[in-house]
Write a structure and sequence with these properties.
Radius of gyration: 40 Å
Largest sheet: 3 strands, antiparallel
Structural class: alpha+beta
Protein name: Rv3654c family TadE-like protein
Order of helices and strands: HHEEE
Pfam families: Tad
Helix content: 25-40%
Strand content: 5-15%
Low-confidence stretches: none
Keywords: Membrane, Transmembrane, Transmembrane helix
InterPro entries: Rv3654c-like, Tad_N
Number of helices: 2
Length: about 160
């Protein structure tokens, strides 16, 4: 007489999987999906590698953003210096041509200061004026030095 197995239990060799004591379950199937030369254990050696890559990419992004900000700061300082020099030269030319009163270089200095620059040179020659201005920079750019610009103003036919 054969005894029936209780519900949910199967006799050895029947049913759903290896029986107790059967060691074939510990051997991975031949086509386990791993590349040749790699075992399932080596994948755990790479845990956290994605985190390192992401942290590296974030740091590179921050470095590029900082470099872009510094470059932008330098460009803005250069534009401020150019604008201040142009306006200072025009103010001095107005005095030279009699459109305004006072000292031509004094007018250039006041105009440069109003534009955030400092007048460092003012050369008068007849109806022509050449000015040189400096705009200070902050932060990392102080190591490079201030932004400088020069401008000329006078009659159109002058060199």
């Amino acid at each position: 007489m054969t005894s029936a197995a209780p519900p949910g239990h199967h006799r050895r060799g029947q049913g759903r999987g290896p029986a107790e004591g059967d060691r074939t379950a510990d051997v991975p199937p031949a086509g386990d999906g791993m590349p040749a030369g790699r075992s399932a254990r080596s994948s755990s050696d790479e845990r956290g590698a994605g985190t390192v890559v992401v942290v590296g990419l974030v740091l590179v992004g921050l470095l590029l953003a900082t470099a872009t900000a510094v470059l932008g700061q330098a460009v803005v300082a250069r534009h401020r210096a150019t604008a201040a020099a142009d306006l200072a030269a025009l103010a001095a030319a107005d005095v030279l041509l009699g459109r305004a009163t006072g000292d031509a270089c004094g007018a250039a200095g006041r105009t440069a200061a109003a534009g955030g620059a400092r007048l460092v040179g003012c050369a008068l020659g007849g109806q022509e004026v050449v000015v040189h201005v400096v705009v200070p920079v902050d932060g990392v750019l102080t190591a490079v030095g201030p932004a400088t610009a020069a401008a000329r103003a006078g009659p159109a036919g002058s060199p």
